[in-house]
Amino acid sequence: MRLDGDAWQARFREFKTEAWRLETLPAYNVPQEVEELRAFRAGERIDPHAHSNDYTDDLKRVRRERKSKGRVHIVTRPLSEYLRYEFMYYLPHAWAGEDIRIMDVTDRPNPLAGVSDYWMFDKREVVLMNYLPDGTQIDRTVFEGDVSPFIEFQRIAIAESVPFEEYVKGIDA
Predict the structure, then answer these.
(1) pLDDT tens digit string along 9-36?
(2) How many C-beta atoms surround the C-beta of residue 132 within 10 A?
(3) Burial of 35 per CB tally in 10 Å (0-12, 13-18, 19+)
(4) Phi/psi at 118 (nearest 5 deg)?
(5) Are 3 and 113 in contact (CB under 8 A)?
(6) Residue 26 and residue 154: Cα distance in Å, rounded?
(7) Burial class (CB in 10 A: 0-12, 13-18, 19+), 49
(8) pLDDT band at residue 172 under the 50/70/90 scheme
(9) Helix, strand, coil in percent for the chain, rounding step 5
(10) What is the pLDDT of residue 171?
(11) Phi, psi (degrees; rounded to nearest 5) at 128
């Protein structure tokens, strides 16, 4: 089953304990980010201490409700322009309550090679995030099957990654 619109947004409103994502691409082609990415390319930066938007507000709601939202992004250096842009937002997102972790596989084998992007809700439902090679999203599809492999992918991703703030210490993001 494909997910769009309110059916997709409902997953984020209705999960009971945890929403978690694996990100595997060096860039995502997101129409809603075009202006922000243009500004980033022009040298504009956000103030992470002052940045607030609907996403950070929702992260605070999730935390107040004693739920968790997290992700692991698999990266290689040098970081792509898109990752440098995205990292600018990761700090205020982490401060708002998202558990953001980075798995750098620059100098080692990727333990999740071949695993695609997905969201997992409450370790019960997996939504596959399908992209073209350039990061343009094709669709979101509910996985119909045993979610146990995805739970294991999450375990590996967390074990093999470091918290975002730890990762960016000492690198020029």
Answers:
(1) 999 999 999 999 999 999 999 999 999 9
(2) 9
(3) exposed
(4) -160, 160
(5) no
(6) 19
(7) exposed
(8) low
(9) 40, 25, 40
(10) 74
(11) -80, 130
